[in-house]
Amino acid sequence: MGGSTHFPARSWTGWRPYPQARRVSLFWRIFLLNAAVLSLATALLLFTPATVSTPARSGEIAGVFTALAAMLVTNAALLRLGLAPLSRLTRTMATVDLLRPGRRLAVSGNSGIATLIRTFNTMLERLEAERATTAGRALSAQEAERRRIAQELHDEVGQSLTAVLLELKRVGDQAPPELRADLVEVQETTRNSLDEIRRIARRLRPGVLHELGLTSALRALATEYSTRGLNVRARIGPDLPDLDEEAELVLYRVAQEGLTNVARHARAEQVDLTLRRTDGGVELLVRDDGRGLRGAPEGAGIRGMRERALLAGAEVAVGASPGGGTEVRLRLPARTLVPPARMGVSTDAKPPPEPRG
């Protein structure tokens, strides 16, 4: 106020000035291509001895149709060359997947087509950013809902079943001998239901991850899935770097989903769960000896793993393992590591306690 105000220059990402002489619209490009072909045909008629009689003779008719075919072929070749960038854009639009970000089309062609390609690339960047933001909010809400349900299962249903179990024990001690066998069977059913509820609550809210860390959580996950003929071997590297909470949760959930898919669909006997440090960050590998993918399309579980990986800037690859089964590979970049300056800094925030029964 009271003087001239300086406004900073606005930065337009991805914008490049083009000479005005090159700004030819797609309409005029097609028009000029056709005009060039027609002009060539007119010049041939004017400056060559070619004539057409009335009525036309057979040789003249053959010459006219030959010239027409040549004009059509020339016109098609020129149009194909001029519209080639548009064809590449169409193929990219048909195959683009927002769960595999980073794919862009090289800007080529002049004016209208180049502007269209540049606009499409900008739209992809915006859609990928918006999808990452939306997916992050949805997954955060999902984790919060999981914690709420796990807490209610533990506090409400778990405590109620515990009370029922104690009451059955008291009644069984006072019941006649001929009823005790039935009461013991009911007690065992109730106890199994209580154990199942506790297991579901632990899977919904991995308290061991918050309390004991990622290494212990993955080992506990391997132990949990090592049942019914499935042997899960956890191989955790000793030199793992410190990760932030979001990265640890992504690694745990991807490992959990990978083991769930193996248990449900793979018909495998052996699974290797590996977490190791790499030059670029951290790598998680879930590899089984089952029947493999067999051309099956990606289901909701794999797409869910990709969405979680995007939140941490990671990449998920699902393919065949060397042993003939399936492998899920998650590469977490180094930027998700906790900086050295933050290591060992205490915080007032406390993780929620694991449900206990």
Automatic annotation (TrEMBL):
SMART domains on file: HAMP, HATPase_c
Keyword Kinase annotated: yes
MF terms (GO), sorted A to Z: ATP binding; phosphorelay sensor kinase activity; protein dimerization activity
CDD domains named in the record: HAMP, HATPase_UhpB-NarQ-NarX-like
Swiss-Prot/TrEMBL keywords: ATP-binding, Kinase, Membrane, Nucleotide-binding, Phosphoprotein, Transferase, Transmembrane, Transmembrane helix, Two-component regulatory system
Entry's transmembrane regions: 26-49, 61-83
Protein name listed in UniProt: histidine kinase
Pfam families hit by this protein: HATPase_c, HisKA_3
